[in-house]
Amino acid sequence: MNFLRRRLSDSSFVANLPNGYMMDLQRPDNSTSSPVSPAMERKHPQPPQPSHSSTTGTSIFSSISSAMKQTTQAAAGLIDHSASPTPPVAQKPKILLVIDDAHTDWAKYFQGKKVNGEFDIRVEQAEFSELNLAAYVTGGCMVDMQVMRNGTKVVRSFKPDFVLIRQHAYSMALGEDFRSLIIGLQYGGIHTVNSLYSTYNFCSKPWVFSQLIKIFNSLGPEKFPLVEQTFFPSHKQMLTTPNFPVVVKLGHAHAGMGKVKVENQHDFRDMASIVAMAKTYATTEPFIDSKYDIRIQKIGSNYKAYMRTSISGNWKANTGSAMLEQIAMTERYRLWADACAEMFGGLDICAVKAVHSKDGKDYIIEVMDSSMPLIGEHVEEDRQLIADLVVSKMTQLVITAGSTPSPLRPWPPQVQPASMKSQTGPQLGQLSQPRPPPQGGPRQPQGSQPPRTNAPPQQRLSPQGQQPQSPQSTSPQQQRSPGSPQQVRSATGSSPVQASKAGMFPPQQPRPPAQGRAPSQPSPTETSKQQATPHPHLNKSQSLTNTFSISESSQRGNANEDEAKAETIRNLRKSFASLFSD
Length: 582
Known about the structure:
Layout: H1 2-9, H2 11-15, H3 21-25, H4 38-43, H5 53-76, E1 94-99, E2 114-115, E3 119-126, E4 131-136, E5 140-149, E6 152-158, E7 162-165, E8 170-171, E9 176-177, H6 179-187, E10 191-193, H7 196-201, H8 205-219, E11 230-232, E12 246-250, E13 259-262, H9 265-278, E14 282-286, E15 290-299, E16 302-310, E17 322-327, H10 331-340, E18 349-357, E19 362-368, H11 379-403, H12 416-431, H13 476-479, H14 485-492, H15 496-500, H16 524-532, H17 540-547, H18 559-579
Parallel strand pairs: 1-3, 1-7, 7-10
Antiparallel strand pairs: 2-3, 4-5, 5-6, 8-9, 11-14, 12-13, 12-14, 15-16, 15-18, 16-17, 18-19
Helix pairs in contact: 1-5, 5-18, 17-18
């Protein structure tokens, strides 16, 4: 650094530079006018530009110093390019697709709500029958919607960020099968409430009932009283049943459809023929003379229990006139809801249906998912709870997506030492490579030196017959970058002073081996000293490099960073060596 200051402050050095050289590097300020140097007056008798050599040299020195610091910091990755303020960008709203009929306007329940406090919510609502989609591996899911709004056909295409499912995806009674849309949403990686996995599993009631059997076997009949049910995959197995009356359920249907009460064996055989025509499965369960029905619903962490009593006298409480009232939420009911909410990976919205018989016993008969109808006096409150649950799920999705490690981010620090072992091994072996004897210096005979042992196989013999270049020693920066051109020049030539002091500093400068013999392997102590203590005889270019060298800890990144830093410093040294050489 002092060498640069002296060189740039020397008037004769500035005078020998080409005309306009300083002007090209940095144009001086017009307000600071001062007389030029005598050397400039002798060389250029015409009126020179108003600049002072000392001021110019100091200013160009400051400019070069700043450029050097920025270059070395950029090589070490210390400059934070994200510190500059960026103008705020308007966040795109998150698109929420609500699959429900047009009787409920879900947009008003999400009005004013934001995802993670920064994203607005754009609600698109349609039924399963009004949707079509295409899913891609990397492109997500594109949904086409064709709906009727006030007599006008509205067609839109969009990529939903989240889906709320409030309709049944499959119903044999209505002849509607939208399971292909559920598969498409799953294929496109769309998150929903409830999950697509659970929605697809709920497309078969016997399949759901099999999960209730698992809970029944786990908790026992006292805590989880499940109704006795028999499954028939086809009509061929429907020969007889032990007790009558029974309730026969055909296939997969909702809202009391496909359920028939059979009183005797003859009616049961007739029912078996109907099952044969339907070409589906069937289930039977004993008829329970109920006093009322019980429904326990769970929306997020909110629980409600309702009691429904038939007024019209129909054995189906959901058919005809019925009286509905909310009852107290007991721990028994809460256990039912929590146990059923764990099936299929978790149900955010579910409802358990049970029958309370006239003898005072409860029988669980069914569980419903997010497509359950809302009942009672708190329908608006339940819809608001569903909206809050959806916003919470969308917020978790945004936070999780922002904290997921990117493939472009570096590995954690604890992984780096394992990957650096293979990188640092050859570099440490390169440090112990000895220097050849100087040109014209005395060469030791082959028999004057005892044979060396423990010679590393990767080290080569001293090159012979090569002409050394400018006197230069090996700096620590060059020792960490084996195979570079600067390293080759340092290995082929050294100054006589350094060769004469080889015996005085054995840890830093090992003695050259005899011709035809391999060099000795230095001890670990000598290797550590070589890394820590550079040779005192450094030329001007290496002094400049060491002045702006980066700390040892910042250069122990990965191999690519080390190579980039070494290449940057080598280029800088070459530029400044050629700039200030006489």
